[in-house]
Every structure is written in structure tokens, then in C-alpha cells.
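During the reporting period the student researcher (J.K.) took over the structure-prediction task from the postdoctoral fellow and processed the backlog of single-chain submissions. One of the processed entries is reproduced below for the supervisory committee.
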Amino acid sequence: MRLVIQKYGGTSVGSIEKIKAIAKKVADRKKEGADIIVVVSAMAGETDKLVNMAHQISEIPERREFDMLLSTGERVTIALLTMALQSLGCDAISLTGRQSGIITNSSYTRAKIKYITGKRIRDALNQGKVVVVAGFQGIDEHENVTTLGRGGSDTTAVAIAATLKAEVCEIYTDVEGVFTTDPNIVPHARKLDKISYEEMLEMASLGAKVLHSRCLEFGKKYKIPILVKSTFGGGEGTLVTDEVNMEESVVIGIAYNKNQAKITIAGVPDRPGIAAQIFGKVSQADIVVDMIIQNVSEGGLTDVSFTVQKSDAKKTFLLMKELVPEIGAEDVKIDENITKISIIGAGMQGQSGIATTMFSSLAKENINIMMISTSEIKISCVIDTKYTELAVRVLHDAFGLEKPKG
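J.K. obtained the following C-alpha cells:
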């Protein structure tokens, strides 16, 4: 019997009516003869409510308890969806991350899956049940509840697909697939029929919200095709696969990320070992650094800037404030009004003039570039947040992404 893995995000399960509609869809698929595992997120807005409550108690909540709190959102959804399936006469069972055997490391709020036992999932499938699994969560080897970070339900779904060797993992969301950029900013953005893991990984890591980057890493590693489709709309969606993208475009998409902050340490002594001190302290706090830039040294002093997620910004700032006197620096500043905007495309490799087109297009609109980073298939710039929408539209037009194939 064909095994189907489906994942529904927060907007897809955002109301009782939507949950009932998904239950009908799943029950109909089950009648067609498929084994089905459904992975769900918390209802839209629920995780934000939990986060806000935590921050009313503590500015920086203790991470173990934070994860215990956040894991409750998905438990509500799995119970409601299972009840809805049962009311339709479809035999179903809900399982938490723990009950599903999702074992992670102990990095609270951003845990990584180590392995999935999946025994109870297999047992339930063998009994003919639809299995409804709580996404976004697991347990560590000390049986502490952990969460996988925002978008972690995608990771849960693809990891289960890999463990149980499913042919494809279907990710259902409120959009029809993967677009060349955010259609809310560029209405004529084009839906892509197919995109490579590498390109989608870049788009996800750079701010595109359709898929979580870690689910793509699982997909790429275990060669699980990922199909992104609209929950209640039609269309074939977008297939993420290891096949080379066949489109003509050198640049395939524009991504942006407003969820970053820039930390600048001014007057840093330019001597060996300083960078190791700075980023060693950040690493010890389990904070991920994205872009780094160091100015040319003048008078033996330099400025070091780097970006982190906004959720880590205050903690990073306080750590650096402690470090400034230790390393003999002058000051530390924080800027949370930044956006990282990126162009992505496997076709960029070996092509000249791509960076020039990007930089000149931004310059024509007087958009200043604060930081730049590149890889084989992307170029990213940090700009002032107020120019985000303008920059996206300008770059989308500059690379002709609205044009149909051929």
C-alpha cells in the first residue's frame, strides 16, 4: 500500500472549519487505499500567543521550560484533527513527538533530530489507522521535551518520510507553491513548477517562508521529493527535487529576511585571536551568526559587524557588552532595522555581470548596501528595512522573473 506523508501548517489548521475540511480531505485519500501520516503545526497565531505569555513572565525565558510551553500548541491540533477524522468514521490516532519516537539533541528551541524510532507510527499504520503526528517537537535522550524551531513541522514531516521510506512528502500551505518572490510584494511573481534542493535551500535560509531549510536538508540527504501545494486550492504545486532545474533563468528567485539584527563592535584592537574571542563567546551561547564583516584597520583599531536572528539579538548584545572591556574595544551597537535581500539561482555559477546588475539596480534607487555575502548560487545584501519592498520589486524586474518560460 502506498504511504502518503502530508503536512499542514498553521494557517491550514487555523480554525475548526479548516480542521474539519482537512479531515474530510484526509479521509477521502484514505478511502482510495493509501496509508496516511499527517503532520500538523499549531493553529495559526497559537505559538505567538505562547511566546508572548512567556515573555510576560521573563524577558529571556529558560529554554527548557520555553520548549515545554511551545510544544502544547501542536498537541491541541493533533487531538482536534483526530477527533474530526473519527467523527467521519475514519480510524485515527494522535501521537506527540515523544510518542512518535522523535529523538533530538538538547538544543532547546532549535533542536535537531538525531533519529526517529517510529515504532508506534508503524504499529498504528499496520492497524489501518491514519496517524496524526505533532510537528515541531521531540524529546532528547534525557526525555526532556524539545522543539525544532520555527517551521520545524516541515522538518518533522520530511524526517518521518525519510525514516519510513515514503516516495514523496506533501507540504500543504496557504500558497499554491514556490514563487519567484513574495506575491504579496510582487503580484506578477511566477509560480515555479520545479526547483532544486540547492536553490530551495538558499531561498528558505534567506527568508522565503514556504519551507523550512532543515526539512530541505533531510530531503536532499535522503532523496525525498517534496511537493508544495495549496491546502484547499487546485494546481500541481511545486516539486522540490534533486533534478537540475531546466528553466532558462540565471536567477530563479528573490528572497528577503527581516528577522535579523546587526551587531557592531567598534574600536576593536586589530590583533590575532580577537575574532576567536568574539565568536567563541557567541558560539558558547548557542547563537548562530550569519554574515560577518570587518573594516580595514586604522590606527590598530577596526570595527567588526555581524548578523544574528532577531530572537537572539538582545542576548548577543548583552554578551558583547560584557566582552567589550575584556578585549579593549570601545563600544557595541545593535541595529534591528535591517533586511537581508538575496538573489538565488543555480544558473549563476560561471555567469558574469550578475552582481553588477544587482548592485546597480539597488544604487539607482539610492538603496545603500551595508554588507555583502556570496556563494555559488546566491548573492545577499543587507539593507535598511524601509527599502525592503522596493528592493524586491526592483530586483525582480531587473532579472526578468515575471517573464514566462521560453
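The committee noted the following: The two ends are 40 Å apart (CA to CA).
J.K. will present the remaining backlog at the next meeting.
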